[in-house]
UniProtKB/TrEMBL annotation:
Residues 1-76 are annotated as: Disordered. It comes from Forsythia ovata. Residues 23-43 have a biased composition (Low complexity). Residues 44-58 have a biased composition (Basic residues). Residues 80-126 form the G-patch domain. Transmembrane segments: none annotated. This is G-patch domain-containing protein. It comes from the Eukaryota. Residues 1-12 have a biased composition (Acidic residues).
Length: 250
């Protein structure tokens, strides 16, 4: 008898003793056969694809050669043994001359356009159509960008013009007040750190007509030109020395 402290043998650790060798061999054969079938099918698919690509390339080469031969034949003159040429010659046709009694017809045969696509007659070649559409889209995009840039430039110009009108009007208003010995009313600047919220007063829009009115008042009453920056002795001196009323004329 074995001693009590001796460890018992683990008879469930190795399950291979309960499996027959025939079963294990058959399962391994099934795995190997399935792997071989998968590899064979993939090889067949790759070979079929290669054959398809080769046939496609050969067909394209044959078409290119055929097109070249056709164009070469079209480039050569019609032989005199041709039946159509003989009939034309019997009716008075001279090689190189135009058709018709008055010689106002065609001098060259009707051109031939080789088409390999399956589209009907009158349908544009897909490659040419694709290039044409891309060109039209790029042209449309370019025109749109130009319109946007022109619109942006005009808006920026109008904004700058409005700012210049406001600045010049404020300057003219200050000069007029000084010439009339009036106090210039300045808007008090508010403290940015002030936490109290006050209602914003909308500033009255100053137009180009308003600026022109105050400029004319300075010129007519005080002989003063804002853009020259000086007061002339008389109206004649103002007209002879000042280039104009507007800022652009200076």
């Amino acid at each position: 008898m074995a001693e009590v402290g001796e460890e018992e043998e683990d008879y469930m650790g190795d399950l291979s003793q309960f499996i027959s060798p025939e079963t294990s061999n058959s399962s391994s054969k099934k795995v190997s056969s399935s792997t071989a079938s998968v590899s064979n099918s993939s090889n067949k698919k790759s070979r079929a694809q290669n054959r398809h690509e080769q046939r496609k390339l050969k067909r394209e080469r044959d078409q290119i050669e055929e097109d070249q031969q056709t164009l070469e034949r079209l480039g050569s003159a019609i032989p005199q043994s041709n039946i159509g040429f003989k009939l034309l010659k019997q009716m008075g046709y001279t090689p190189g001359s135009a058709l018709g009694k008055q010689g106002s017809g065609r001098a060259e045969p009707v051109g031939l356009d080789i088409r390999r696509g399956r589209a009907g007659i009158g349908k544009e070649d897909p490659k040419v159509e694709k290039l044409r559409i891309e060109k039209e889209n790029s042209e449309m995009k370019r025109r749109k960008e130009e319109e946007l840039m022109a619109d942006f430039g005009s808006r920026q110009k109008e904004l700058w013009k409005g700012r210049r009108i406001t600045v010049n009007f404020r300057k003219a208003e200050a000069v007029l007040a000084q010439l009339e010995n009036r106090d210039v009313v300045e808007v008090e600047k508010k403290d940015e750190n002030d936490g109290e919220k006050e209602e914003e007063v909308e500033e009255e829009e100053i137009t180009e007509e308003d600026l022109l009115d105050i400029l004319m008042k300075l010129r007519n009453e005080f002989h003063y030109c804002l853009f020259c920056g000086c007061q002339y002795e008389s109206a004649e001196a103002l007209l002879s020395n000042c280039p104009g009323i507007n800022e652009d004329e200076h």
